[in-house]
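for the writeup, i need someone to sanity check this before i put it in the appendix. the sequnce is what the collaborator sent (i think, or maybe the updated version? ugh). structure was predicted straight from it, no edits. if anything looks off just tell me and ill rerun, i have time this weekend
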Amino acid sequence: MSSRSAVVFPKDLRMLKILGENISLAMKRRKITQTRLSERTGLSMPTLRNITRGEPSVSIGHYLVVLSVLGLAEDLGKVALDDEFGRRLQDIELLTSKHKKKPTSQSS
């Protein structure tokens, strides 16, 4: 059985790398070693190394477990919270639908 892996574009790989670096910095600030984090999360050392590298092959659930132990799980809830592009699309639709309304006929 072969495992499927997501196709991740270079721009998105950079974002994962930044996430991994941020997790690594959070560990250092808290003076939590990978060994200690492994004990607290139940994740293997190779998985933790992959997380700190921002590897796309690691499940988001594993990233969440690590963030939770670091006290940063709430940060994941902020992802896509401020959907500026979605609001612009919605505003365009609202503005164009206003112009498409059929005029009401008034009969006397």
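The chain has one domain: 10-98. The helical segments are 10-29, 34-41, 45-53, 60-69, 73-76, 84-100.
thx in advance!!
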